Amino acid sequence: MMTAELTKAIAPGAPALTERVLVIVPAYNEAESLPALLSSLRSEAPFADVLVVNDGSRDATAEVAAAVPGISVVTLPCNLGIGGAVQTGFKFAARRRYDVALQVDGDGQHKPAEIRALVAPILAGRADMTIGSRFLSVQSFRSSFLRRIGIRLFSLVNSWLIGQTISDNTSGFRAYSRKAIEFLSIHYPSDYPEPETVVLLARNGFRLEEVPVEMQDRQGGASSITPWRSVYYMVKVLLAIGMGAVRDPIVKGVGR
Amino acid sequence: MGIRIQIVAILGSLGLLGFVFKLLQRRRLKEEYSILWLAIGVGFLLISTFRPALETFAQTLGIYYAPAALFLALILGAYLLLMHFSLVFSKLAQKNVELAQEVGLLRLELDTLRRQIPDPSSNP
After folding, report:
1. Strand order in the sheet with A174-177
2. Average pLDDT in the A197-218 region?
């Protein structure tokens, strides 16, 4: 673990940290885009261990990932969807007692170079989850009309529910503290977990922080979200968020 | 209520009860999932056997044609069962996810261990 290097990058002059960092890469049929992502993870974030969760892919995702030295690969026997795949990573991280876990999507839209910025608030003990947000910097983010509406809606609803502005609720580029890892290894939403997790964590007393990031277009493969699916996605997620808001917190002693 | 519909209803509920009983006897149906079926079968048998019970039930609900109350009872019973199934499916889906995750994690552990220990059977 090259934590000394990480410490220098985040807080120059600070004593060497011994935090262990795990990058969780959920991958479903991402054989095309994985090699580039994995090699850039190795070079841009050498301090982090990498776990690829192959979510029942039908292509060579598992072989491609296993071919890169020093990378762990979990192959799920069937496709669980992004929620189940990422939760597998949380379970791995919780059992091996990692201090920080990050989610970096297998399609290559998240830049490994920004991992340092994303984990900094967690290492500083300021936050339990950081979200890499596309909307905090000036860069314009091109997206379909439906998606923009959804993103706007989630931001309004979530910010209102938790009393903290979260601009990018659908971003999958996130980092979590040990406490959040242990919690999410048991309670992680299924299907489209990102917006729901914001409410779930905030309502259970975890601290959230957004970090401005840039995202790239997909490096290969096809996105799983089609127009019809985005409508279903919005309805399902809004329902889940609403239910999350009326449920009692799971962590005892946390008020509204 | 016509005598024919009454006979059909009684035979139908007896048939249902007998079928559920047979499935239980052959262990093809778990007891915990049979209780709702048995309760609905018995309830339906009661209201189809005792006409006054059905008439009272129909009158209370303001249904003029008593056999219609029989259908209502049947539909309510069916909805109850469907809801029960949805609950069971949700529970099963959750357990399935946990099992799949566990299988994936265990396979990784196994592969890691295998790489550390040379396999004696692989010697030519």
Report:
1. A71-75, A48-54, A21-27, A100-103, A174-177, A129-133, A208-212
2. 90
* Chain B positions in Cβ-Cβ contact with residue A95 (cut-off 8 Å): 105
Give exposure, B77-116, as e/b (b: 16+ Cβ within 10 Å): beeeeeeeeeeeeeeeeeeebbebbebbbeebeeeeeeee
Q: Which amino acid is at B18?
A: G
In contact, A188 and A197? CB cutoff 8 Å: yes
How much of chain A, in percent, has pLDDT values that exceed 90?
61
Contact between B100 and A76 using a beta-carbon 8 Å cutoff: yes
Structure-token match 């379970």, residue found: A91
In three-state secondary structure terms, A21 is strand
Identity at A121, one-letter amino acid code? P
Beta bridge partners of A23: A50, A102
User: Is the CB of residue A61 less than 8 Å from the CB of residue A27?
Assistant: yes
pLDDT at A63 over 90: yes
Average pLDDT of chain A is: 86
A92 and B107 within 8 Å at the Cβ level: the answer is no
Domain parsing of chain B, residue ranges? 3-89
For B112, the token pair is 């890691």
Check CB contact under 8 Å for B105 and A74.
yes
User: What are A65-99's pLDDT values in tens digits?
Assistant: 999 888 999 999 999 999 999 999 999 999 999 99
| Best residue of A52, A55, A80, A185 to probe chain B, by most B CBs closer than 10 Å | A80
Report the C-alpha gap between A37 and A48 in whole angstroms.
Answer: 14
Helix H segments across chain A? 3-10, 34-44, 61-66, 81-95, 115-123, 145-162, 178-186, 193-203, 227-246
CA–CA min distance B106, chain A (Å): 9
In this prediction, residue A13 carries a pLDDT of: 41
Domains by residue range for chain A, with CATH: 3-246 (3.90.550.10)
Q: What is the pLDDT of residues A108-147, one digit of tens each?
A: 889 999 999 999 999 999 999 999 998 887 655 566 777 7
Taking CB atoms and an 8 Å limit, are B101 and A72 in contact across chains? Answer: no
